[in-house]
User: Fold these one by one.
Assistant:
Number 1:
Amino acid sequence: MAGLIWLHEEALRADHPVFAATSGATAVFCWDVDYMAAADIGLRRQIFIYESLLDLEVTIIRGAASQVLPVVARCDQATQLFVPDTPNPLIKQELLKVKSALAGVTVELVPERLFVQLEVQPELGRFFRYWKKARKQALRRGGI
Amino acid sequence: MQDIPAHELAILTPLTRRFDDRAALAAYVARLADITPPDEPSPIIGGRAAALSLIAAINPAQYSATRNHLDGAVTRLSAYIRHGVLTLDEVRNRALDVVAAPKQAEKFIQELAWRDYWQRLYTASPDAIWVDVEAYKTGFAASDYADDLPADIARGATGVACIDAFIATLLETGYLHNHARMYVAAYIVHWRQIKWQAGARWFLQNLIDGDPASNNLSWQWIASTFANKPYFFNLNNVARYVGPDINVSAADNLPLAHSYERLAGLLFPNLPSPQVS
Ligand SMILES: Cc1cc2nc3c(=O)[nH]c(=O)nc-3n(C[C@H](O)[C@H](O)[C@H](O)COP(=O)(O)OP(=O)(O)OC[C@H]3O[C@@H](n4cnc5c(N)ncnc54)[C@H](O)[C@@H]3O)c2cc1C
C-alpha cells in the first residue's frame, strides 16, 4: 500500500513520528503562499521553513495541498495519506478539502512526541494548576 | 506517469533545493511570495544542524540566573521548537543531561512547559485562538480598544526610544527576547489602547517563532484577558534588564518614565486601586 506524507510547517524534522508511521512514502510540502498569508507566516519565517526543508527528504511543490496532493496521490497510486497532527484550524480546513478530493485514500493524523505523559488531562485554567500536575513528569527524561 | 494533463504536470514540477548561498535562497522564497527580499539574511538559520548547535549550548544554571536580562543566557531555540525541528522532549532531556540534579534545570524546564501548556489550550479550543478568553481587567471594555495597529508602531517610530529599538530588532532579525516582547505588547495594549489581536497578528507576521498559541495567549496574559491583572512596566524596570545599547533616558522615553503608582493611575484610571502585576 503506497503512502503519501503531507508535511506541513509544524513537523520539520526527519525523526518526526509521521516518517515512522509509513515506510517508503513520498513526502510532499505544499508551498502555498495564500495559506502562508492567511496563517500570518511572514517572509523571514518562510525563509526559515524553506531552509529547514532542505534537510529533509521532501518534495516541495507550489500550490495548495488540496490541489497538489490529489495529483501526487494519483501518480503514486497512494492509498494512505499521513499528516502530522496539529491544532491549526487552517491546516484542518485544508485537510477536509484534501479528503474530499481523495476518495478511497485513508487519512491518518500522526501525533507529535509528548513533553509530558499525563494520565488525565490537567486543568488548564491557569498555568500553575497545569504545572502542579505536570511538574513531576516534566523533570524526567521522556516526560514519563 | 502517462497521460498526465499539462496543468497536473506543472503541479508535479518541484521547487528547487539547490542554492549557492542563503541570500539566493532568501531571494527565491521572496520571489515565490512576490515580496522584496530582506536586506540581511536572518541570524536564525533553518535546519537541524543549527538547532543542534544551539541545544549544545544550553546552560540551565546560567539560564535561571540571567534569563530576564536581554543579554541573558536564553537559548533562542523557539523557532526550531515551533516548527518541529526540535521537540520539547529532546530539549528537556538535553537540559537534564547537563545538570547534576533535575532541580537545577527546573526553571528552564518550566519555561518549556509554558509552551506545552499553551499548546494544550490551543488543542482544546483551536477556533478560539483569536477570541478574548475573559474580559479585560483594566477598567475598560474590549470595545474601548482600537482594532488596528497604527503605522508608527509597525514602522518602529513611536518616539519612545526603547520601544522603537525593540521593534527594530523584531523587524530586522525576526526574534525578540521574552522581556522585550512583554514591553512592546504592554506598550501597545495599555499605553496605546489597541486590541491585543492587532499586536498579536503583527508579531506573528514578523517573528520566526510566531506561534498562534504561545503568541496569542501571551498577548492575552499581558492584556489581562487571560490573567487576573494587566501586565505593565516602567522605565526603571527596562533599565534594569537591558544593556547599554538601549537608550533608557527619561527624556527619550517620557510615557514610561513614571512610578508604578502614577502609571497605574494614568493607564487604568477606572480601576479603584492599583490592580496590576
Ligand atoms: C507577547 C509575547 C508573544 C510571544 N510570542 C511567542 C511566539 O509567537 N512563539 C513562541 O515560541 N514564543 C512566544 N512567546 C514566548 C517567549 O517570549 C518565547 O518563546 C521566547 O522568548 C523565545 O526565546 P528563547 O528560545 O531564547 O527562549 P528560552 O527562554 O531559551 O526558552 C526555551 C524555550 O521554551 C519555550 N518558552 C519559553 N518561554 C515561553 C513562554 N513564555 N511561552 C511559551 N513558550 C516559552 C520556547 O519554546 C523557548 O524556545 C511570546 C511571549 C510574549 C510575552
Number 2:
Amino acid sequence: MVGEILGLGQAKARGGSAPRKERTMKQMILDYIRNEYIDDDDDDVVLDENTKLISGGIVDSFSMVSLKRFIEKKYAISIPDEEASPEAFDTVNSIIALVNRHVAKKG
Amino acid sequence: MAYPTTVKDTWRADLDKIRGDGLYKEERFIHSPQAADIMVEFPAGAAPKEVINLCSNNYLGLSSHPEVVAAAHRGLDERGYGMSSVRFICGTQDVHRTLERKLTEFLGTEDTILFPSCMDANAGVFEAILGPQDIMISDRLVHASIIDGIRLAKAGTNAIHDTYKHSDMKHLEQKLQEHADKRVKVIITDGVFSMDGDLAPMDEIVRLAEQYGALVFLDDSHASGFIGKTGRGTHEAKGVFGKIDIITTTLGKGLGGASGGCVSGRKEIVELCRQKARPYLFSNAVPPPIAYAAITVLDLLSSSTVRRDKLEVNAKFWRHGLIEAGFVVKEGDSPIVPVMLFNAKLSQDVSRDLFAEGIYAVGFFFPVVPAGQARIRTQMSADHDRPMLERALAAFKKVGAKHGILGLDKKGIIGKYGQ
Ligand SMILES: Cc1ncc(COP(=O)(O)O)c(C=O)c1O
C-alpha cells in the first residue's frame, strides 16, 4: 500500500500524463461509489470522475461517512472532519485531490 | 439588543435565496377542526374554502373524534391544563404512568417512556444508551428526527454511524459484517416510510439482527394504530410483534393527532432514557388532557379494528383508482399513496390546480425527497367516505388530463416536463 501511494506521488511529481496509479485510485473510488450508493435497478445514473455526487443528489451528506471511511482505510490516512466537507467530496476528482494531499503530507 | 444591519442583511439574503430556490414554505390557515374536509384560507386573506384534506396524518380520524375530545375535557377537569414541570421533578401524574403501561401493551414491548414528541424521543434515545464502542446502522431514508438523534449521539458519545441502501437487506448484511467487532450494533429504520409509503421488511431485519447479534430500532410513527391486522404496527404486519428492541412512535398522527411521543422497548433501555435522555430530562411533561385522550385512543383501538379496517379499504380504493386513472403511483401497502410527477414545478402546479378543484394535497420535491423524484403525497384517513374519495379522484383526473400526464409512465412524464 505504501509503495502504491509513493508511486502515485512520484508520478505526479514527474508531471507525466494521467499516471497509472491515479487511474487505479479513480477506478477504485468509482467502483466503491457505484456499489455503495447506486441502486442495482437504477440505470439512469451516469457516473464519472466529474459527476456531482453530493450536490447532484447521488450521495447524501449523511451517508458520505462510509465513503470517507473506505478512503481512509484504503490509503491509510485520516481526514479530519472539517476537511471532509460536502464540497471536498462532491466529485471523484476533488476526492482524489484530497487523498493526494493527505498522502503527500504523510510523506 | 444589538441587531446589526449586516447580520439582518445576511438573514434577509438567506430568506431571499430560499424564496428564489422555490423552497419557501407558507402556512395555510385552517378555520375548522382537523378532519377529512376542512375550511382553508389560502392564499392568506382569501375567504375560507371547503376542501377535502388529503395531506394530514389523521389516519384514523381521531383528531376530532367525540370520545377523544371528551376524554381530553375530562383530563382538563380532573388533572388540569399543564404540569409546569419536567417529568422527574414534579411532572408525573398517575395518568402518565397509565399511558406508558398501555403503550407497552399495545406495542408489544417491556416498558415505555413518554417524550414531549417523537422528534424528542428520536433525538434523545441513541445518546442515552450508546458509547464509543457502538455503531448505528440506519436506512438511508429514515426520518429527519432520527438523523438528528444519530448526529447527537455521534457528537455526544463518539458512537459511530453507517447507512444502508433503502430497505436493501444485502447491503445491510454487508454492513453488519463490516462492523461485526462493535459492542452494540443498532439497526435503525422507519416502519412505514413517510414520503414513499412502503413498509420496511421488519421480518428480514429481525432475522439479520438475530444472526449478527444486533438490536432493532423501529420508528413506527406512520404505522402505530393502523398497520397490521390489529393496528399494532409494522412489526405486527411483518409477523415479528414482540421482537423489536426499541420502538419510537408519536401520539401526533394516528394515535389522536395532538402531540407527544415515546420510546418503548427493552426495560434497561427505557430506564436509561429516564436517567439520561436530554429531551426527557429538560422539557415539560405531556399535558394531562393529552394523556387522558391518548389512553382513550388506545382503549378504542384495542377494543375494535373498525377504524383501521376502514382506512385499509379507503387506501386500496384510492390507490387502485389513481392507477386506473393513469397516474404513476409508488408501490406500497399503507395509507400513504405518492403520486409521482418527478418534476418539481409540475408538482407545485398540480397541487395548485387540485386546490382550485377543492382538493388539498401538497407537492414535495428536493431536498425533502431525492432530486427528480417530485411527487404529490396523498394520505388516506378512516374519516374519508366513498363520495369524498370519488370527488377527489374526479379532480385528480381532471387536473391530470389538463397537464397531459394520464397514462404516461416515468419516462413519458420526464420526457414532457424534464426532471
Ligand atoms: C417517521 C417520523 N418520526 C418522527 C416524527 C416526529 O413526530 P412528532 O411530531 O411527535 O415529533 C415524524 C413526524 O413528522 C415522523 O414522520
